[in-house]
Amino acid sequence: METSENVSLIKKYFDLFNKHQWKEMAGLYNETADFKDPSLGPGIVKQTREQIIGKYSELSTTFPDVKDEIVQIYPSGEKHVIVEFISTGTAPDHSKFELPICTIFTIENGKITGDFTYYDNFEEPAE
Fold first, then answer.
1. pTM of the model
2. pLDDT per residue as tens digits for the range 40-62
């Protein structure tokens, strides 16, 4: 039963993400959660709900139409849901991005406690 509840929680997460409802989305996390994300640097970084709201508010300012499209959801055991998705958006200069991403969510007591995200974080070569 927990597995389907975890999948429902993650589907709700992506629905809120796509609506840019950052406060509600951050409420799906534990008060402080562990993040692994190339944009936050190497290793595991603890983030509060307020920091999560700030990060995604900034993202939607840079990419007002940012959206995630789920490719596949893989429930894994009692505490994990792995999601493969494509993130897309348009920058103010009208350049577009399309980025395949994989996130491993850890869920405990109905809240997201871990968000380990993997994607190609390449930098454009300097000219």
1. 0.91
2. 888 999 999 999 999 999 999 99
At 75, the amino acid letter reads P
SS (H, E, C) the chain: CHHHHHHHHHHHHHHHHHCCCHHHHHCCEEEEEEEECHHHCCCCEEEEHHHHHHHHHHHHHHCCCCEEEEEEEEEECCCEEEEEEEEEEECCCCCEEEEEEEEEEEEECCEEEEEEEECCCCCCCCC
Strands across the sheet containing 45-48 = 45-48, 29-36, 111-118, 96-108, 80-90, 67-76
Task: Tell me which amino acid residue 14 is.
Answer: F
Strand partners, 36: 116
Domain 2-118: which CATH class? alpha beta
* 1 has a pLDDT exceeding 50: no
